[in-house]
Design a protein that fits this description.
With 234 residues, this protein is mainly alpha-helical. The protein folds into three domains: 3-117; 125-170; 172-234, no CATH class. The protein is built from eleven helices and two strands. The chain has a two-stranded antiparallel sheet with strand order 1-2.
């Protein structure tokens, strides 16, 4: 295969990859929305699938296509390297300028692709109304209710009903969470989750729910029901 044909094929593949990434981005943004947005958009707290795949699986596919596109881009640059050097020398005519611009350009692009290696995420407490963090607040309500044990039975019932409503609305699990993260977030024993989901006893706490769901055929709603039942009992 000559160079012209190789360039043409690489360009076509790059265009297809870009279109696929764009389409998947729109799919994740407007169709398979974030878990907290599902009730608002569809009116039900359900798991969303497209061609049998959930949001997290489509996100993994999106990432793989990104790797493919990056590889094609490297091939594209390699095949056009001589032309790039010629154009660069025409645009930056002095060697002194090239000695400044070249390392600066390399450093900027290295930072853009590898900056995630040098930083850690910020850790903030969940605020009220922001998904899973509301359960912590709900626990505080529960503690307050215990202090008011001397109140009338009617008032205690109202407090408990309000607390249960808050707990129900706060339980949101996604496939990107691990078993250990779910256990810590909702104060549900790991062994309890493994047993109720029908998982092998040796299942690791670092295993993601998305992988377990596909392997053992349960839904995120099943996990939420198990959590809710445990909280009701305790």
């Amino acid at each position: 295969m000559n160079k012209s044909k190789a360039n043409f094929i690489i360009d076509i593949l790059m265009f297809i990859a870009i279109m696929a990434m764009g389409g998947q981005g729109f799919l994740l943004e407007y169709v398979l929305v974030h878990g907290r947005e599902v009730p608002e958009k569809y009116g039900l707290n359900v798991d969303l699938y497209f061609f049998g795949l959930d949001r997290h699986t489509w996100g993994d596919i999106h990432l793989v296509i990104g790797y493919v596109l990056l590889g094609l881009l490297v091939l594209h640059i390699a095949l056009h390297w001589q032309m790039i050097l010629v154009m660069y020398r025409r645009l930056v005519t002095t060697s002194k300028s090239r000695r400044i611009i070249t390392p600066l350009f390399i450093a900027i692009n290295f930072f853009l692709i590898a900056f995630f290696l040098f930083f850690k995420p910020e850790m903030r407490d969940f605020e009220k109304g922001m998904g899973r963090g509301r359960y912590t607040l709900s626990s505080e309500h529960s503690g307050s209710a215990g202090k008011r044990a001397t109140e009338s039975e009617t008032n205690r019932r109202e407090v408990n009903e309000q607390h249960q409503s808050e707990v129900d609305s706060s339980i949101r699990v996604t496939g990107r969470l691990t078993l250990g993260e779910v256990s810590r977030t909702y104060n549900v024993p790991l062994d309890y989750l493994i047993q109720k989901l029908g998982l092998p006893a040796e299942t690791s706490s670092t295993t993601k729910l998305g992988w377990l769901r596909r392997t053992y055929n349960f839904s995120m709603s099943d996990v939420e029901k198990i959590i809710r039942k445990y909280l009701e009992m305790h």
